[in-house]
Amino acid sequence: MSNRRFEMYQYRQIIVRLRLGETNRSIARSGLAGRKKIKAIRQIAVQQGWLDKHNPLPTDEVLAEWLRDDIAQPRSIVRSSSLLPYQDIIQTWYQQGIQLTTIHATLLREHGFNGGYDSVRRFVKKFNQSAQPVSTILDFKLGECAQVDFGAGPKIVDEETGKEISTWIFVMVLAWSRHQYAEIVRHQDVITWLGCHRRAFEWFGGVPGKMIIDNAKCAITRACYYDPQVQRAYGDLAESYGFCISPCPPREPKKKGRVESGVKYVKNNFVPLRYFKNLTHANQELRQWLLTTAGNRIHGSTHEKPLTRFTLEKSTLKSLPENPVELVSWHQVTVHANGHVLLNKSHYSVPYRLVGQILWLRAGETTVRIYREHELVALHPRLFQPGSHHSLPDHAPPHAQAYAMQNPEWCLKTAHEIGPECEHLVAQLLADHVLDRLHAVQGILQLQKKYGAARLNAACRRAVAFQSPYYRTVKSILSNGAEYSPLPLEEAFDTLAETYTGKGRYSRHPSTVLQ
Hints:
42% of the residues lie in helices and 14% in strands. The protein has helices at residues 8-19, 24-29, 35-48, 60-67, 87-95, 100-110, 117-127, 190-204, 232-241, 257-270, 279-294, 306-313, 398-405, 408-418, 420-430, 438-446, 448-451, 453-465, 471-479, 488-501, 510-513, and strands at residues 146-152, 156-157, 164-165, 168-174, 180-185, 210-213, 220-222, 229-230, 244-247, 329-334, 340-343, 346-349, 358-363, 367-372, 375-381, 389-390. Helix 14 packs parallel to helix 16 (438-446).
């Protein structure tokens, strides 16, 4: 297995499958991880009691503590050219239908070959492109698995636009009974894929133990023979319902031949010569057809009716959860400079310190959760209107939080506490209908921290008297210490009083004027 970094949810999938009783070999065969890695994880899980079904699954924090360091295997490299001396005999054995494992063992035992099995497999694939591989019939137990796939659907007229739209047919076939669920949908996205699974399980009244699937992007983000990467949302759904995911190797559709045949049967038997008013009408007709024509036909392989066999298989399916499983999708998002992430043209805020980072967004049916690795950093209601946004005040920078909190109501209340002159000045500024004076008011009120409430109130009184109720005027008065200086009207009044009392500097008493 290549050296690669495992996410916590991938470790969780392995532990869930171990709790279900699967062997290291069966998990490795599905391509989730190599046997050595799974063995190492099993040892830790046994030590920590994670495999006991009576204990809850460990949290992501616990998994991160124990499994953060990847237990990776170095990739073995064997040159395919070492098989060139045996090319003729290998081709002869392969054409006789001998399995590659037997060919590899014989080369090791009798011909001194010291390479690995994968080198034999690659060699045969390279030099025998025209050779037909030997196939075998796959047998499945009751309730063991289901096979899932999409196929092209009929053209249907959209009622809203009046235009003809393309559709897809989702098909899930129970491998033992051949009973199936089918649904006509417009998209192959993740939410559609998950929703079809939930409706299929409700249709069957239970959950198969394993899902054999193709490598569609809605299920597998990276198709690979050894290291496929499961869509994170699909992994969560599998954990919730208790089934394991078994993707087919790339370009090997025969490993899910039953659903391949099921898709062809729906396309060739149900779709032709039918008229559908809309998508709802098409699915109503399809479900009726599944319970009549499809369910009661004599199947070509089992020679029994699928519904008859399903009566035996239904009791072996796993029970549905008490509450419907929420459909979620995971997205990697980048935090923009405005402190928001974008999903379907809707904006959600995150703490400002995360600007520029890549986060995980979990979009549920009613909520949106945003994670930094496994740490929840934001929780929002789900938005569906393009262009809408949901911002939490705590996520903004400190200066933006202060501006948002110091609204006009707050400013008037604070000015009232400082004094009546300050309240009068603030009310006068906020009453300006031409220019927004909120920043100026906030600046004036901030001067209280440096000069105190009494001096600020006096400075506001002087600024109003000079008909200059501005921030720079109040600040200049305070910085010059002029807030208690006499006002112009007061100076004129004092001069007049001194004149009549004879106390002026250059004044004389009226009785001395005529002397």
